[in-house]
């Protein structure tokens, strides 16, 4: 009798093994390659993100019996990411890549991974170029709110308040180019609504105190949208105030998604003789930032992550109570992947089918560590954003005045909101057709990021870029000293901006 039972058992084992697809058994172990900068000065460095990934690993292991073998490699913020990938990848291709965050690093890695059929989930890669998955980014899922999603909140504001034209002022470091990509998205969202935009790039080390040209540019537009460091924003606001352009005829925004310590209360204060004027000027400045939802579990998670980071002796960049969006995002990335893998296994596929798993991560809403995360049908997260404004002019303090929800495109008005602040006192003259003509040309030419390096000097210290000179600049490209810009390869990230 025992012999018969043993036989039955062994038969069953054999038949089970035969019935189950081989992939199903292997799906339990997932090889993950994390590509993030080792340099701890990035808020998304390996040291900052690792504790969150480890927490996710632990909670998934206990709930879903999924084992992750995670390797961390240095992505740098540029070429390094690709080299780390191919050096590791040739030995054994990973089942999943988390990161990179920096645009140029991500661009290389995502294309190779897509070619290898390996899913990539990143809390970065926010540039508009990545939204076109058909351009080689087929296996990318973006769990951070992309710049284009942010920009759609701006175009919704334009629609709602009837604004017609925007001046985009951005700081361009010509390396990581975060503000360039931020403003590129705004340009692209406003252009889609046939609104007029004009753009001016500012180079950090060559600032001027005199801004007559800036003032003239502001006068020609209704809304000024900035992406720059705190000191540059302050200079621009002081300039605008000096030229009496903060009187309600112009609307000002500063986009600052990630660095909570550089906006809000006291951001105008420097302890110099301009503080009083700056406070008055900042009364006209609105700040567009990420809306971070908080649930009780998230506070615990934040505390735990922060404790681990401190234990590792890494500088803590966050002034707020909670960890930043990248840390949160990579935690949820592992969660999202495990949900998709589970579904793939149910459908008889396994971790080897990267395109299938990628598809299963898209068009899906799930409960992340901080709240609901919704990924659209293109694989991009629907982000939520907040607009902050000065509500106490005496103290010069800021509060969120409304929120924008990406999932349904709706606004939520908060106490302290005053519609006068967003209503233009007087209509400006219609904008000339010349600009949009130049704009059309740049789009038609299919200009790519990095191709446009030439600049035209307007003021001794301000560089000025206008759409209508793009063709000229493309021709000059050969003569232009590439210098440190060599890494902005033409094939890197496509863009229709400038
Ligand atoms: C880390 O990054 C910062 C800012 O990008 C840079 O100034 C610094 O030199 C880098 N450190 C190392 C060791 O590469
Ligand atoms: C954030 O902003 C503050 C104030 O402007 C600045 O000192 C700090 O270096 C910024 N942090 C990062 C990571 O950029
Ligand atoms: C937070 O952690 C504490 C102690 O670790 C625990 O008692 C509490 O239930 C946790 N709260 C939530 C909301 O998870
Ligand atoms: C991956 O899954 C898709 C179905 O979504 C299927 O058409 C394809 O053949 C699979 N690829 C592999 C390599 O199994
Ligand atoms: C997204 O999911 C919904 C149901 O959850 C479905 O009706 C819709 O067709 C899906 N969209 C795409 C593009 O797959
Ligand atoms: C800014 O000041 C206001 C009013 O004093 C306060 O309600 C708010 O919490 C402060 N915000 C921050 C981020 O400290
Ligand atoms: C939009 O979504 C947000 C967040 O999910 C929700 O709070 C809000 O009620 C929704 N608004 C509309 C008009 O559906």
Question: Can you tell me about this structure?
Answer:
There is one protein chain. The chain has 498 residues and is of the alpha/beta class. The protein folds into three domains: 29-145 and 297-375, Response regulator (Rossmann fold); 148-256 and 259-290 and 384-422, 3-Layer(aba) Sandwich (Rossmann fold), CATH 3.40.50.2300; 440-487, no CATH class. Helix content is 38%, strand content 18%. It is built from 15 helices and 17 strands. The chain has helices spanning 2-19, 22-26, 46-64, 80-89, 103-116, 147-161, 178-192, 212-219, 230-242, 275-282, 296-311, 325-346, 354-361, 433-445, 470-476; strands spanning 29-36, 67-74, 96-98, 120-122, 140-142, 165-171, 196-202, 223-227, 251-255, 285-290, 364-367, 372-375, 384-392, 397-405, 410-413, 456-457, 463-464. An eight-stranded mixed sheet has the order 7-6-8-9-10-13-14-15, sandwiched between helices. It comes from Scleropages formosus (Asian bonytongue). One of its GO terms (molecular function) is peptide hormone binding. One of its GO terms (cellular component) is membrane.
